[in-house]
Amino acid sequence: MTRFLVTGVSGLLGLNFAMAVDGKKHQVIGVANTTPMTWVNFKYLQAELTEPGIIEKLVEDTKPEVILHCAAIANMEACEANPEMAHEVNAMLPGRIANVARKHDIRMIQISTDAVFDGSKGNYSESDEPHPLSVYARTKWEGENAVLAENAQALVARVNFYGWSVSGTRSLTEFFANSLAQGKNIKRFTDVLFCPMMVLDLADMLVEATHKKLQGMYHLVGAQPMSKYDFGVAIARKFGFDEALISPASVKDGDLTATRSPNLSLDTSKIVKALGHELPDFERGLDKFYAQYRHGFPEYIRALA
To answer: Does 305 fall in a domain?
Structure first.
C-alpha cells in the first residue's frame, strides 16, 4: 500500500484522485486550506502550505511515501490580478515541497500545465522550450524548474483534465453541461486546441507512473487534440443536449485578461513508451463523465464541502 499526501485536495484533481484511490491499494491523506471538506472517505487535514515550517510538520505527522502536489492558483485571471501571490503559490511553494521531499526520501509528483507553451506550433514534446504567455503559465513553468532543481527524482506532469468539482464550476465540461442543461446559448473557440483527459483516467495514470517510479518531465494529457468548440459539441451529443446552442467563436473576441495559447496539442509518445500502453481515448473518458452525471455524482461531490 502506497501512502499519498495530496495537496489541494479540495480541487478538481486532488479530490477526484483521493476519492478514487484511497482505500483500495493505497492510502490518501488530503490537505487543503480554502475549502474545508466533510464526509470524505480519506483522512483530511486543513493547513496553509505557505506558512513557515508547515510542510516539514505535515511530512513528519503523516509520513507519506509520495507527495502529489496539486495545490495552485489555477484561475488565469486571478493570477493576472495578483502576480505576487501567483508567484508565491505556483513557483516558490513547489520548490520548497520538493526540497523537503528530497530530504525525507519521499517521491514527489508536481502537477503542471500545458499552458507553459505559447501555442504557436502545437504537438510540443518535453524537449521543446516553453514560452508562457500569462502570469499563470509563467509561474507554473517557474514551479517546474524549482521542483527539478531541488529534486531530480521528482516527476513533473504537464496535464489538462476535466471532471466534476466541489464548486461545479472548475472545469470546462461543467460549464458546458450546466449551461446546455439550462438551454443557454454559449460561444466557444474554434481556434484554441487542447488535449483534455478525464480526471479519473489521469488519476490512474499518475498511480501507474508512481509504480514505475517515473521521474523528470512528462506530458500526460488526452490522446486526441480538439478545439474548445468541438469539445463542447461532443459533450452536447453525449448528454443529449442541443448542440445548436453552441456557437463557434474566436479567442480574439473572448475579452479575456490572460492571453490563451492557440494550439496546446502535446506529444505524449514519451509517457506512452514509459507506461507501455496507449493513453485512454477521449470517448472512454467522456463515457465516465456522463455516467457520473447520470448517477448523481455532481450533487454528491458538491455536498462534501
So the answer is: no
* SS3 state at 43: strand
pLDDT in tens, 217-234: 999 999 999 999 999 999
Q: Name the nearest CA neighbour of 301 among 6, 31, 39.
A: 39
> Is the CB of residue 249 less than 8 Å from the CB of residue 189?
yes
Rounded distance between C-alpha atoms, residue 137 and residue 115, angstroms? 5
Banded model confidence at residue 24, pLDDT cuts 50, 70, 90: confident
Judge whether residue 258 has pLDDT over 80: no
Copy the grid coordinates of residue 233.
459539441
Helices (H), the chain: 12-21, 54-62, 76-81, 83-86, 93-103, 135-150, 172-181, 199-211, 228-239, 269-275, 282-294, 297-302
| Cβ-contact 16, 163 below 8 angstroms | yes
Can you tell me the distance from the alpha carbon of 133 to that of 151, in angstroms, rounded to the nearest whole number?
26
Give residue 83's domain range: 2-168+195-224+265-286
* Total number of domains constituting the chain: 1
Q: What does the DSSP assignment read for 76-87?
A: HHHHHH-HHHHI
Q: Does residue 159 fall inside a structural domain?
A: yes
Sequence-separated (6 or more) residues with CB below 8 Å from residue 222: 160, 195, 196, 197, 198, 279, 280, 282, 285
In a domain, 182, yes or no: no
| Maximal C-alpha separation, the chain | 55
User: What are 125-178's pLDDT values in tens digits?
Assistant: 999 999 999 999 999 999 999 999 999 999 999 999 999 999 988 899 999 999
**Where residue 153 sits, what CATH number does that domain have?**
3.40.50.720
The pLDDT of residue 41 is: 86
**Amino acid at position 154, single letter:** A
pLDDT at position 255: 66
Residue 303 lies in a domain: no
